[in-house]
Design goal:
homotetramer, alpha+beta, Urate Oxidase, 20% helix, 41% strand
Chain lengths: 314, 314, 314, 314
């Protein structure tokens, strides 16, 4: 839907070219809602940051200021809150699918997009026991989901961000292309660190899928492969990580990995009365390498709309 | 180029589906370089944050860890620095085009992407006069550029972000769709505020274009239209802003506007011994509306690759 | 007041030492309020981030959970809003003084602290003219104030933060102490840049003071001195900046300057076919030097309470 | 040392008042160093952000630009790196004490301040086993230390920040002072959440102290008391948390707790066909309550210098 241009021609400029409305979307970003399940003394918490957006024929709102078919973003926010009560927000992917389907019932909405971040909490420990109603934030990684639904299909992209990984050996970088601007020295042994963003698209997200289990297992695979691949480059490590996920989960059509290479530079101790054999590093902020890799199945249709973010037209 | 999938099949999983490398890119993000022009006592400053990425046939790096054709991101960084000396970094669009063309000379590179942020500085004032070599940062808005080049063509997207605008009247929001979750009251007069991201794609960016003049003029048009449109919705205001830019610049094929609706809520004074007639507002952080609009010409080919960011595959 | 310890002994530990409540304060932080003056078609905007805190005998709230004398932070927020209507929020120092005096009327409040940030807006330009009701954020610098009032006196600290300055020559750093860990090379000519925080305490802030004029003039002096001092070190530059302010304003008892040394490193071009004579710099993020200097009069009493921030007990 | 004013009178203004240098300090902020212990295949990681500052008689640097006794911040950075090799960075308090004592050997240095943040990493799990050389960042809480040493004594403040806690019941707020600006309703049951900053000063930090064990135990006490106190106000909860720490650790002279009240507002469902009995909350960003409490022993001398941060003169 997004990929078709709205056909409404809305004016002719002095240069005799028609100017028209192109891709557009609108919604409410970052409704931060916390849902407490308190049916028993042992409470549960679900902490979500929800973004909704609607795509469809909203040309009149743009070209004539006509709001009669526009569901206000304030109402979208209210709906996200109500849905967290009417429907379980856990797993959040099912919550998001339900919310997306609701928005599709409004006439001009051709596609609804729901993006969710889930912040993790663990139970506080008191006298060695997990507490009934007190929680401690854990992280830094954040679980994410992006649901894109139209009347024909829904796409679900599960993911995580800010999963920060470091290996202190088992990573080389050498035999690279050298030109007149190369000053980097090859190395057999370096620190490799990243703050991983991973997103994987799940085909046929039927009711039987255990979203939480898939998430936990994919995360474990990513961490384990990061650890065990003898790395020749971050590209290779990422490709192996993604491949391992696809090998285990036939439901996953593709996985995208975005990884800043968080450089850890050996501090030069040559002027000092100490040596430094891969022991003391400067953890630099900027610039950083940025490596992005998709691993995908060759027999599954691509789904470009699934990857257009609520903030993606900019 | 990005839109074609790398054909290298790299393995067959136990489920008998081929897993392959999909879209990928890599580069150096956020090389923050400052260039001082000091040929005369009156110095000039150009303050750039440069991100480079390369797209092409880098399959061997991913599937075999083979770096022989990989230009390291460290070298890309060095090149960005050297280019700031060999070539004028002002206008930055020309600098970026030159840098992109350089990266295209490496064999596996099919497409080079250069993204630049420019931070603005004005001369310090001393005794009423602009100073020769002291500068004060201005903002908050940041000028941006994204250059995408392959052997056939280059796309340049000029833009800005964090341009924060507010109008204290001349904005209504009413006659919208009402459902069972609607609690928003219609209004004839509200504060409208946004932190604008705007990006406009320039066709045929030939040598004759005065990039700095175009930037300044587009910014002025955007601000002026924001001010003068009697707003019925942010969508309509954005569409008018974009249309005004296209009407004046035939070189601009499309413009994308992304605008958070930074809500300013009237504080409820009904319990107090004062009234509040649109005078005291709570400037809220989250959630916020998010409106994204494209305005485009109908006779210009679209350029999807031009819009794929260096961090865009995630 | 803050410097006296609350005498309430509240318990005796098993180690036979009395444990008691020490310094404490509470309030509402970051009430972001926007005030529009709309009595004429030419509107004015005042955009403030207000933090209030109360200090006094709140021991019962801590040791017994007794709230009977506790003015809730929610009420403090409401009051900040109402005060922006009852009293002019411009100049914000007078607004803060009035708000502080109000909070002192509550019995347990011995000292009230009001901290304010003011975000700057300029009028939008339309057809070369400043617009009546549309504004553009300027910055990045933010004007600040901290008012501390008790029944006997009020202290006002005016200030600014995030004023980012850079001089491209006129700064040396050499003849410093050298030890076995020194690798820095002395230089006669470097870029000097900082993001300045400055705060100046004004004695006897009577009604006749033109707060806005003082602010503007101090800011101009700081910028001008940064520009014109031939710098031998950031310490010296800051001392000269502060001294210049005190020389012009007898009302200012002391000024504190906090300045990160935002390092701009010459990029090493020795491997390349270009030279770099102070032309291309890497603007680094971390680590950074941090220089803090107080310049003061010797005949004015110090005011330690004036410098204890609302977030200062941590 | 910091509390004495430098006696150097450096000028007489036109108003015949002497202007002089007051409190000052300088150093290197945020040297982000990672230390890998790799003597065995099972590596260890210590990830520190180190800030150093020096206080003493640096008047000549300010008033005359004389650097002969100034240890450059660049050298301080180098020293922090070398110290991470010469001395174990774990526990970081001992590392900081050693580094502080080193800086005191330079003639003008009367007081050295070392501030450290430690970012936590846990071992990656592979096939159910902790991995030898791969680590995953945990958090969000960060362990902190501040060491302040002069020739007579050293103060150590241990602490943590960003420890985010939430209890979904067991918190009331009622019977508070009501005035004409009060709109808050009393409640018997609310969500209480905070992002805790805690700092505790340890007297006589001799060599026998197990810094890591103290840290772990204090953190556990804080979390447990937050959970178990039936809260009548955040002030009371914080006071109980602090008291519990002092009761268990005679070595701790005082503890300071700074706690934003991260408001979770019940979403008003009265217009909807659902009820909301403490189940769906809006987690708001700003404004927030800010409560700061000190709990201390009455028989231990205070140590104001210990609490002056490297960025504290602003």
């Amino acid at each position: 839907m997004l990929m078709e241009t709205c056909p409404t021609h809305v004016g002719v400029s002095m240069y005799d070219m028609a100017i028209r409305l192109g891709h557009n979307q609108y919604g409410k970003a970052e409704t931060h809602l916390v849902r407490i399940m308190r049916d028993t003394p042992r409470h549960e918490i679900v902490d979500l940051n929800v973004t909704t957006s609607l795509r469809g024929d909203f040309a009149a709102a743009h070209t004539a200021g006509d709001q009669t078919k526009v569901l206000p973003t304030d109402t979208q926010k209210n709906t996200a809150y109500v849905w967290a009560k009417k429907h379980s927000p856990d797993p959040m992917e099912a919550y998001g699918l339900s919310l997306a389907r609701h928005f599709l019932t409004y006439e001009p909405v051709a596609q609804a997009r729901i993006e969710i971040e889930r912040f993790a909490w663990s139970r506080a420990t008191v006298d060695g026991e997990p507490h009934d109603h007190t929680f401690v934030r854990t992280g830094p990684e954040v679980r994410t989901a992006a649901i894109t639904s139209d009347t024909e299909a829904s796409h679900v992209i599960q993911g995580l961000k800010d999963l920060t990984l470091l290996k202190s050996t088992g990573s080389a970088f050498k035999d690279f292309l050298v030109d007149q601007y190369t000053t980097l020295k090859p190395t057999d042994d370096r620190v490799m660190a990243t703050s991983l963003v991973a997103r994987w698209r799940i085909t046929d997200p039927g009711d039987g899928l255990d979203w939480n289990a898939v998430y936990d297992r994919v995360k474990r695979i990513l961490v384990a492969r990061f650890a065990t691949v003898e790395s020749l480059a971050l590209q290779q490590t990422l490709f192996e990580m993604g491949s391992a996920v696809l090998e285990e989960f036939p439901e996953i059509a593709e996985i995208r990995l975005s990884a800043p290479n968080k450089h850890h530079f050996d501090v030069d101790f040559s002027s000092f009365d100490e040596d430094n054999r891969g022991e003391v590093f400067h953890a630099d902020d900027r610039p950083y390498g940025l490596i992005q890799v998709t691993v995908e199945r060759d027999d599954v249709a691509s789904a470009p709309d699934a990857w257009v973010a609520s903030a993606g037209l900019a």
